[in-house]
Every structure is written in structure tokens, then in C-alpha cells.
Design a protein that fits this description.
Belongs to the LysR transcriptional regulatory family. By secondary structure, the protein is of the alpha/beta class. It folds into three domains: 84 residues, Arc Repressor Mutant, subunit A, CATH 1.10.10; 101 residues, Periplasmic binding protein-like II (D-Maltodextrin-Binding Protein, domain 2), CATH 3.40.190; 114 residues, 3-Layer(aba) Sandwich (D-Maltodextrin-Binding Protein, domain 2), CATH 3.40.190.10. The protein has ten helices and 13 strands. Strands 3, 4, 5, 6, 11, 12 and 13 form a seven-stranded mixed β-sheet that branches. A two-stranded antiparallel sheet has the order 1-2. Strands 7-8 form a two-stranded antiparallel ribbon. α8 links the parallel β9 and β10. The protein is rod-shaped and about 100 Å long.
């Protein structure tokens, strides 16, 4: 028995003979003479170690093995023929896999816009999405386990040479506070958004729920600087690593939180979002990826992000 692997030419010859049930007609169909066709089929049978055809002087018929093998060979040939257009689609970024991580804040404003646009233009790309804090995303990128991430700026300086960064959108911080506290602080509230600004000075004694600094140093420092600019020292009551958890702790009356304005779309019973009376600091969200490894699929996603970066601005609440 031969240990060689059949080639596609032999498989195409096999299908032609099986469909024509005649070597002469199959040879004419393949634009070749009969002897080399017969030799190729014999070579295929030797390679596979089975007889594919029962031959007589007047006819040729598939054996039971040949009949069972025919649909499998047709599938193999169809898959082989699909390789070229698939390869071209991959090269154009129209197909493939994109592993994308994102911070929880992006899930309430930026991420849905990007995914909707990218999905409409590249429906054959399979997205692998994972929520993670910025520090985890940087580690995953450096290790090559994800292709890109939506992070809160800045990118750690130690990775600046290795990673590329594209700022996308900036949005102000607002106060997430228990509804009872908001009512005592005054203001006209509609559902979970209150248009009346609230001053940090009026909330100085209320515990603050915040991200741990080692997980989001830029975000954490922005919040601390906001208190410092108001001449206040925050009283940190709780720390949490997910925005959903932070807002849930506010809902439970554990304190207040300064969160990106887009997070007001995360509704929790007993939580009201209000703008700051002071000049509100902004949080920047951007896309980060390994500068030296840009696949066609990632390049297509970056193109979408660049378009949004020039036009997307998180809308202020009415």
C-alpha cells in the first residue's frame, strides 16, 4: 500500500470518470487522452489501497467503496476551490477572527457603535469579545492573547514603544449617587438622570466608591485630582473593579461614585446620575494594539475606529 497522499488532480479525474462512467468520455471532458487518465486512476487506487472502479471491456462502474467515497471527494474539491477566495477575503480583512477586549465603560456608549459599524461592513469576521480592565488588557496584548483593546488612557509608558494607541472619545465624569441623597441635595430629577448639577463640596462627607488605583491609575488619579481641585480629600469607602459593581454599591447606599457620563445608560434602582457643578474632568477611551502585528482584520477594525474617532463624541444628557 502506498503511503503517498492523493493530489487534487487525481481526485478531479476520479470524479470525472465516476460521472461519465466511461474513460473515453471522461478523457474528452478533461481535454486529455485516455491512457494517462487510466494511469492516473490506477495510481489513485494504489495510493488509497482500494479499487474504485469495476472495469469491463464496455463499461466502468464504481465499486461500493468508490460510490461511498465520491461525495467525500466532491466535498474535498469544493473546499479546495474555496481556498483562493477565502485567502483573498482574509487578505482584505473581510474574513477571519478578531479578539477584542474592552473596559466596562465602553459597553454603554462606544462599543455598540463600533461593533454595529464593523459588523455591517465585515459580516464574515468572527469577533471574540472579552470585558477586562485596562491593566489586564495591556498584559493580554503584550502576551499576544488578544488583538486589540478598548482602554482608558493612558497606556503605561513602559509599553509605549511596543503598543500603538488611537484616542477615540472623551466624556465628562458625572456623579452616581443614591436617589435619597440626590433628593436631599435638591434638583429636578427625571427617572435616573437629574439635570441639576451637584457640588462635590456638598458630598464631601459621603464615602466614595472607586476603582483601585493599581487597576486603572489614570482613571483613579483623575477622580482624586477632581477632589483636590475642589480643595477636598475624598473618603474612600469601597473599591470595586467593575463599573457595574460600583453602581450596584451606590444603589445599596454605600456611597457615591464619579463615573463616565455614558454610564448613565446603566440603570440601577435607587441610583441617580447628576452633572458636577465644578468643571468636570474628562475620561479618554482609546484603542490599543501591538504596533508590529496588524492583521488585515485588525487593520479593517482600526479603519472603522479612525472614522469614529473623528466624529464620535459621547452626547451630553438632555
Amino acid at each position: 500500500m502506498s503511503t503517498t497522499i492523493p493530489d487534487l488532480r487525481q481526485l478531479r479525474y476520479f470524479v470525472a470518470v465516476a460521472e461519465e462512467q466511461h474513460f473515453g468520455r471522461a478523457a474528452a471532458r478533461l481535454s486529455m487522452t485516455q491512457p494517462p487518465l487510466s494511469q492516473a486512476i490506477r495510481a489513485l487506487e494504489e495510493t488509497l489501497g482500494v479499487e474504485l472502479f469495476a472495469r469491463t471491456r464496455r463499461s466502468v462502474e464504481l465499486t461500493a467503496v468508490g460510490a461511498d467515497l465520491l461525495p467525500e471527494v466532491r466535498r474535498l474539491l469544493a473546499a479546495a476551490e474555496a481556498l483562493r477566495p477565502l485567502a483573498q477575503s482574509l487578505a482584505r480583512g473581510e474574513a477571519g477572527v478578531l479578539a477584542l477586549a474592552f473596559v466596562s465603560t465602553a459597553d454603554y456608549g462606544l462599543l455598540p457603535l463600533l461593533l454595529r459599524d464593523f459588523g455591517a461592513r465585515h459580516p464574515r469576521v468572527r469577533l471574540q469579545l472579552a470585558e477586562a480592565t485596562s491593566d489586564v488588557q495591556i498584559d493580554e496584548l503584550v502576551a499576544g492573547r488578544i488583538d486589540a483593546g478598548l482602554v482608558i488612557a493612558p497606556v503605561p509608558p513602559r509599553h509605549a514603544a511596543q503598543l500603538a494607541y488611537l484616542p477615540i472619545a472623551r466624556e465628562p465624569l458625572v456623579v452616581a449617587m443614591p436617589a435619597e441623597l440626590s433628593a436631599r441635595a435638591g434638583g429636578l430629577c427625571e427617572q435616573d438622570w437629574c439635570e441639576t448639577p451637584v457640588s462635590l463640596a456638598d458630598l464631601a462627607d459621603v464615602p466614595l466608591v472607586v476603582f483601585p488605583r493599581h487597576l486603572a491609575p489614570g482613571f483613579h488619579d483623575t477622580i482624586m485630582d477632581c477632589y483636590g481641585a475642589a480643595g477636598l480629600a475624598p473618603r474612600v469607602g469601597q473599591e470595586a473593579i467593575q463599573m457595574q459593581t460600583i453602581v450596584s454599591l451606590v444603589s445599596a447606599g454605600m456611597g457615591i461614585a464619579l463615573v463616565p457620563q455614558s454610564l448613565r445608560h446603566l440603570r440601577r434602582t435607587g441610583v441617580v446620575y447628576r452633572p458636577l457643578a465644578e468643571t468636570a474632568p474628562t475620561i479618554e477611551t482609546g484603542l490599543v494594539w501591538r504596533a508590529a502585528e496588524v492583521s488585515p482584520v485588525l487593520a479593517a477594525f482600526i479603519e472603522i475606529v479612525r472614522a469614529h474617532a473623528s466624529s464620535v463624541d459621547v452626547p451630553r444628557a438632555p
